Amino acid sequence: MSDPFEKSHTPVAGQVEQLAEDVRAVTAPNPSPMTYTGTRSYLVGNGKLALIDPGPDDPVHHRALVQALRPGEEITHILVTHAHLDHSPLADRLSDETGAKVYGFGPAHAGRSDVMARLSETGGLGGGEGIDAGFDPDVEMSHGDVLEGNGWALETIHTPGHLSNHLCFRLRDAVFSGDHVMGWASSLVSPPDGDLTDFMASLRILQGAWDRVYFPGHGAPVRDPGRLVGHLIAHRQEREAQILHALSARALTPAEITADLYRDVPEYMHPAAMRNVLAHLIDLTVREEVAPVADLTADAAFRRLSRAAP
User: Over the stretch 34-67, which tens digit does the pLDDT of each residue have?
Assistant: First the structure.
């Protein structure tokens, strides 16, 4: 399958982009290997607006969002896709200034699967990258809830995987996909905050819909979302097959698997890749296709179970 990602996206931080009659984007000045060209904040509606993903608590981005408002406009709702430091921290400041309530699934660890909750208690998994531990929405939203404003309605889609409290929001035939589906690369899934089992299930929820466009948390609008979601599912399935093949000969740690499978990836990206490998190994452990040699930790060696062998 050819690469469906758009890697020529060059937004200007702070500049307002009109993406639809009632959708505008403002990119935060936080580009990095993990955020690509920066976090995308979205203004939805005309007059009384919903703000999706206010972004990092950065004074430059705060000023850009305020300046993006047209005369007479106001932010009446603040929606957060998930509690990462590049998406949620500015919510509290803007809520205090505007009086708008903050909407989200719940605190950072809300929605964790039983498996990840147990593994988190035992420790040894690492993780916690970029978590906004203080995030606590005024209003908690569930899958299928609809939030209505002045001329707009946003449907909540709970999409755990990248983070357990991750939400997408549907506006007619468009989806604000946060970090679950991004326009430039596949998402980091870092246990116990990330959960590959949930991530795949969430992708299939989106795959079963007929949306026209995604507006992601990073990168350009996704104009063929069905193709991209299919690619993401196939990519994870291919990576799973590679991991199982690597374990056919002997037990290996996530670091050893990463060094083998990601030889064509710059080494500075290997720590993130290793978190994705660990997520696969936990998913395969739950499905009884592999097992840790000792305690399940980020450094454990995993072996392939004989019933899963060719």
Answer: 999 999 999 999 999 999 999 999 999 999 999 9
Coil, helix or strand at residue 59: helix
At 254-307, the pLDDT tens digits run 999 999 999 988 888 999 999 999 999 999 999 999 999 999 999 999 999 976
Q: Which of 109, 104, 88, 115 is nearest to 197 (CA)?
A: 115
CB 285 within 8 A of CB 302: yes
- Amino acid sitting at position 296: L
Three-class secondary structure of residue 284 per DSSP: helix
Distance between CA atoms of residues 172 and 290, nearest Å: 42
Alpha carbon distance 92, 33 (integer Å)? 26
| Segment holding 76, helix H or strand E | strand 74-79
Segments in the chain forming alpha helices (H): 59-68, 90-98, 114-122, 196-207, 225-246, 254-261, 270-286
SS3 string, 184-219, reads CCCCCCCCCCCCHHHHHHHHHHHHCCCCCEEEECCC
Q: Counting beta carbons within 10 angstroms of the beta carbon of residue 21, is it exposed (0 to 12), middle (13 to 18) or buried (19 or more)? A: exposed
How many CB atoms neighbour CB 38 within 10 A? 26
Report CA torsion sign: 293, 294, 297, 298.
negative
* Selection from 63, 70, 62, 27 nearest residue 45 by Cα: 70
Find out whether 91 and 102 touch, Cβ atoms under 8 Å.
Answer: yes
> Crossing angle, helix 225-246 and helix 196-207, to 10 degrees?
150
The CA distance from 57 to 140, in Å, is: 21
Nearest C-alpha neighbor of 269 from the set 203, 196, 186, 199: 186
Between CA 23 and CA 43 the distance in angstroms is 6
Q: What is the pTM of this model?
A: 0.95
